[in-house]
Automatic annotation (TrEMBL):
Annotated stretches, region: Disordered: 228-277
Protein name per the record: ABC transporter ATP-binding protein
Gene3D superfamilies (UniProt xref): P-loop containing nucleotide triphosphate hydrolases (3.40.50.300)
Short name of one Pfam family: ABC_tran
UniProt feature, compositional bias: Low complexity: 233-246, 253-265
Tagged with keyword DNA repair: no
Nucleotide-binding keyword on record: yes
Cleavable signal peptide: none
Keywords in alphabetical order: ATP-binding, Nucleotide-binding, Transport
Record SMART domains: AAA
GO molecular function: ATP binding
InterPro entries, alphabetized: AAA+_ATPase (IPR003593), ABC_transporter-like_ATP-bd (IPR003439), ABC_transporter-like_CS (IPR017871), ABC_transpr_LolD-like (IPR015854), MacB-like_ATP-bd (IPR017911), P-loop_NTPase (IPR027417)
UniProt-listed PROSITE patterns: ABC_TRANSPORTER_1, ABC_TRANSPORTER_2
Length: 277
């Protein structure tokens, strides 16, 4: 599927997600999110714990369905796709780095990384070659035969990143991909993401770290289920970045900037009811 340069890779319209709707445990995790991301953009999403970041990411990654609202992935309304078409979209276009890694415990690092290629029917020798190359890219060539339990947290995170990259997905979604990494490894992973962006891939990254967000072209801030564009790009300058980092708790708790970002211009009125789980 080729997407014209001006068709958003991601366009959500009034996207809502309510967990346990109508019960005492009801949580409005997304309160109507309008987000537009164009091909080749590198976007960071920040915001306090529980503000809805992973919920949004799961919807963008077609791993969950909204309560209401619309999500167009590369111009296609995903609510119109059947299960097989959705699975194909995920397999062919989206790489997902989960917040909790989601590695299969009984498989080696190499087999974990190669897994998406199995679904894509790539022959085994080619799978092995690509998986080894992807592991080398994240600095883990020497650990290919280790199981997740034999790897450190940061190494497991890098295996998860290698797995997400193996198909060279047009859209890479990463939920706290550098959270468990030391700063040097984190920088290397960010450099890898930037190379992908420079090759025309779209990267969306959730992070709590202002310095990580400073590498992105654009930052959005999630607060109580609402998404706002950050008022100005975060600086990559080390001095101001560390100053910003020291203010992180304040930033997390602050009320949102004005909702004047480009993403807010979409017409939520067009939203239609999507299937709910
Ligand atoms: N499956 C679920 N059932 C019920 N409530 C849920 C479920 N998943 C998430 N929630 C709730 O929805 C809200 C948003 O959760 P989400 O995981 O999106 O937050 P987050 O911004 O990713 O937080 P963190 O930074 O801690 O990862 C939270 O209040 C959470 O408790
Ligand atoms: Mg989360």
């Amino acid at each position: 599927m080729n997407i014209a340069a001006d068709t958003p890779v991601i366009e959500t319209r009034a996207l809502r997600k309510v967990y346990a709707e109508g019960t005492q445990a009801e949580v409005v995790a997304l309160a109507g999110v309008d987000l537009r991301i164009l091909p080749g953009e590198f976007v960071a999403i920040m915001g306090p714990s529980g503000s809805g970041k992973s919920t949004l990411m799961n919807l963008i990654g077609c791993l969950d369905t909204p309560t209401s609202g619309q999500y167009l992935c590369g111009g296609i309304d995903v609510a119109t796709l059947d299960r097989e078409q959705l699975a194909a979209l995920r397999r062919d276009r989206i790489g997902f780095v989960f917040q909790g890694f989601n590695l299969l415990p009984r498989m080696s690092a190499e087999d974990n990384v190669a897994m998406p290629l199995g679904y894509a029917r790539v022959p085994p020798p080619e799978r092995r070659r690509l998986a080894q190359a992807a592991l080398a890219e994240v600095g883990l060539a020497a650990r290919a035969s280790h199981r997740p339990s034999e790897l450190s947290g940061g190494q497991q995170q890098r295996v998860a990143i290698a797995r997400a990259l193996i198909n060279r997905p047009a859209l890479l979604l990463a939920d706290e991909p550098t959270g468990a990494l030391d700063s040097k490894t984190g920088e290397e992973i960010l450099a890898l993401f930037k190379r992908l962006r420079d090759d025309g891939h779209t990267v969306v990254l959730i992070t709590h770290d202002v310095e990580v967000a400073a590498h992105a072209d654009r930052t959005c801030v999630m607060r109580d289920g609402e998404l706002h564009e950050a008022e100005e790009p975060l600086s990559a300058d080390p001095l101001s970045a560390s100053a910003a980092a020291s203010e992180r708790p304040a930033m997390d708790g602050r009320a949102g900037p004005s909702a004047s970002g480009s993403g807010r211009a979409t017409n939520g009125g067009e939203a239609h009811q999507a299937p709910t789980r």
